[in-house]
Amino acid sequence: MAGLINEEDLATVRERTRIEDVVGSYVTLRRTGGGSLTGLCPFHDEKTPSFHVTPARGFWHCFGCGEGGDAINFIQKINHVSFAEAIEFLADRVGVQLRYTDGGGQRVEPGLRLRVLEANQLAAEFFAGQLLGGSGLPGRQFLDGRGFGKDAAEQFGIGFAPTGGRELGQHLKAKGFSDEELVKAGLVRENGWDFFQGRVLWPIRDAGRSVLGFGARKIFDDDRMPAKYLNTPETIVYKKSTVLYGLDLARANIAKKNQAVVVEGYTDVMACHLAGVDTAVASCGTAFGDDHARLLQRLLGTGDVTGGEVIFTFDGDAAGQAAALKVFKGDQNFLAQTYVAVEPTGLDPCDLRIQHGEAALRELVGRRVPLYRFVMRNVLAGYDLDRVDGRLAALRGAAPLVSSIRDASLVSGYLRELAQLLGMDPEEVRREVKVTVQRQSRTTQRHPEPPPGDALPGLPEPRPGLPVPDPRDRRLEAERGTLRLIVRAPETFDAAWNGIGVDDFTHPAYRALFASVLAAGEGPGSWTQRILNANSDPVLEQLVISLAVEPVLRVPTEGYAREYSAQLRVQSLSRSIAELKSKLQRTNPLDDQPAYNRMFASLVNLEKQRKELLALATGPAV
User: Fold this and answer.
1) Which of 87, 108, 208, 519 is the most exposed place for a label (fewest CB within 10 A)?
2) What share of the chain in percent tops pLDDT 90?
3) Alpha-carbon distance 97 to 94, whole Å?
4) Domain architecture of the chain: domains with CATH
């Protein structure tokens, strides 16, 4: 198995990649003054451009939603891929053959990823054309029977694989693709036959609308493949555990509405979107798993546990309950609230639309219930609640569910609901839940101390991280302005950073950023990259990127840097002077004359330093 990407190759990819070309493939950019490019942000809905690209520095930043990064971060976010996958994507784009350490060599041939994506796109166009032709009649009849006409087929790019078994391979080879490339793309088998034959196909795309693979539905009784659904095999671009059908259509709506609806099939996704539930997606050929959850969390893009929701549609039968329990076990992957929408009649979204109309499908999503409640009711259903020992056993079985609720404000309500379902006193339920979870906590050593208030032991602690500074806070302008100059024009400062220290910054993020500046030192990579490497906090990363693209008031010079540095140090000295004066007022000279004299001398010295710095701090206003 391949290991880490060679550092030299990584540096070469960074060096050759032009961020304006990469971003320009997804966003229409227009040149503005100061060497920047602007456009509409692809990560949130906006009408006035707030998305900026600075080619000279290799960064992009949106002043509307606060997202930003380099070309690698952009590909990661727009295509929802890992860092390594983004590097491999860009390496193919700029013609760099990557080497890998600790893993036995190269993992992917140069350019193969782009060739596979190109072959998939041509295959999707071929299949779509076949559906509309004479041979595609069985496919059109299948779709019509499920309430989907020509417009729906075109909207979702649905196609039909001919029954001959070699048409696709011949078509793509005529386009210049080799047998080896088509096999590696999962479009042709090693024996030369097309992978998909006589089936209706759905192209599975990523957020950037690149075709990663296909899902195919059996429509002929004499189909040699027994499975009703057949998916593209694992390829360089198609990993079934990390792709979601409908993502290309739902991505923007998921981010805009802070909602994702997870259904079970391709036709269910179609039915939802046509009914106005335009945040629907589905897993492809596998159960919904942890990687899917993390992908949706990135799409929701919220760090607020109440800021979004993920709604699962499960059947009410045993299989649906088992699926809900599986999702519940991975619920920690979500920061959004999770819900379940169950149709009492047992109809899936596609059949619900056919039998009761699109309004019924919207109502199904509207009737969602919290995942915790759905799972809790199913857990309690396994106990005899008519017996005292059965109720106590059910309470102990449900205790971990209550303790896993992230939103502490909901805990009391769920405890009361659990008490009602069990027919027990709420306080008795609360005490027993605490005892049960404390016993589990001691066993697992996960939560040694119970949190205060209504929050029960077992609730995760708040995630650590730096607070985000407000760029409009005028009280912090000297801090932000100084750091902006340090990030953009470090050469305007002397070796000691004009006498600035970490304690001169009051905001935790600004303090951490200056500490990273001190730790950056010399080495490979750009100045901003070395700062980022010194601290991996995501808030700090976004702060550095924001400062790197923010405009400065004047052309950076050493004098300009001295003015900002002086202002920052004046503010720091003023705080020290105020604190020292407060101590002097609280100190009786008769009780401790030496200490009083030392503090008074320090005060005189600080006042002198402030007066000298005030003479320099005459430039940009604080």
Assistant:
1) 519
2) 28
3) 9
4) 4-101 (3.90.580.10), 112-231 (3.90.980.10), 244-369 (3.40.1360.10), 382-444 (1.20.50), 474-616 (1.10.860)
